[in-house]
Amino acid sequence: MQSGTPTPSVPASQPYTIASPPHQSSSLQSPPLPPLPPSEGVPSGAPASYTPFPSTETRHQLSHDTLPPPVPASPPSINRQQSLAETLKELQEQAAFVPRSSVVRTAAANVPIAVSTVVEPEVGVEESVSELYIAGLTARELFVRLPESDDVSLLLEKYLRPEHRPARDLSGEWRGKTLNELIATHNWRGVARYSYDAVTQSPPEQTAYILSHWLLRFQALVRLRLFQPLAVELASVTSLLPPSSCFGPVELSEPSEADIPLFHPAVPFELHVLVASLPSLQGQQSRSVELVTMLIRCCKEALWAAKKESKEADQRIWTSRVERLGVLLAGLFAEVKASPSASSLLSSATSPSSAVLSALCRLGISAGEMTSLDRSLSAMPAEDPAKARRRIQILRDVADGKYVEAEVELRRLVDEDADDVEARTNLAVVLLYLARVEEATTHLISLLSTHPHIAYNSPTILFNLCTLFEISTEHATAKKVGLLRDAARYGAQGIERGCFKLK
After folding, report:
1. Residue of 247, 297, 240 whose CA lies nearest to 269
2. Which domains does the chain have, with CATH numbers?
3. Residue 115: predicted pLDDT
């Protein structure tokens, strides 16, 4: 079986959407601006801070904490060689996985993976981990053959004659490209095949290296929204791992339950988070709420054990993990319309970090609770390298209808960093709210030329631009088909048909 011949969702903030895109992430992770009235799925008379949610039909294609593939501010650099751990961390900040450094071994000779061969492990919890041999992790039978078509292919077949359809490389062939180049060009099928080759051609005793590339494979499948293959492959891999109470019920014979660790030190923590997050990717938020809650409980037990043994480094690690999982859980609560529970959970933090405060602010905007929003906003540090406080203040201005003030601040962000795609996308939305439709359209189109690999692979940008076409011209369908054709030239892998608003 050649998993690497796939032809047709890593889960960081995301630009605002003009309305509710068909593939929308948690309101805590990606704060949208108020939708345009009237808009599909938006109740008449909804408050300005109303946040629409995807329909049941599209919910099955949802990812979290993340979760559609968010748009990074700029593509990963391809002029330097990143370690695999750095690459995973960048992807994890855009997806559902808690970042963790990994020990990466030398790649197999016939898989010239462009990563560093030595990465410092996470201090504390993992520092004494030695390589653990797990039989079967390199077996080709663990991989699922990916579908040979996708939504973009189907739309091309419907709207364009064969001679007008751009060539799309959906083979996953990556030879001649580095991992950084594959990620920068959003070639997720290439990343999936890349990981397949790395896993299957690695010496089986290099477990940490193999698991790190399995994680990379899973990240690619999330970007491609191939959640069913992801579920099958993830179940196959976790079934081979050492017993852990975090992976669900364990049948006991020998040893006793007390001998089964909460977390096996050789198993990347991201796998636990992915197992808990997977149901939400498939539209089963309630199940993910249960699994994430269980995972938080296990992390707290590990934290208490570290405190008991006075291991300060471990305490910091587990405290960070509990906090990040709390934000993830709050996002799930928001998705199932349990905003009070989400607010109570986030407010329970004794010393909330910027991430928690930012999540509280976004929740306040989503729920229209301006008092709690202002309280959380005032608690955020004034000096923030990530500019989170400024971005939240822009949301606050938009919620108050202060579009001119929002435009001024967004232009400042763009002037400071022309590669800030999020700010540039949000500026186009604010221009629309100011009834400057032509300027908003031109502004978004400029992104297609300055940042094509990002813009043509962004569900948010594509959806917003198609909405602007519908508003501004009688020839919207032709323009949307043209956008589809151009996006296909840049891959458009993992983009669902609803982003082009074509039936």
Report:
1. 247
2. 56-243+262-500 (1.25.40.10)
3. 30
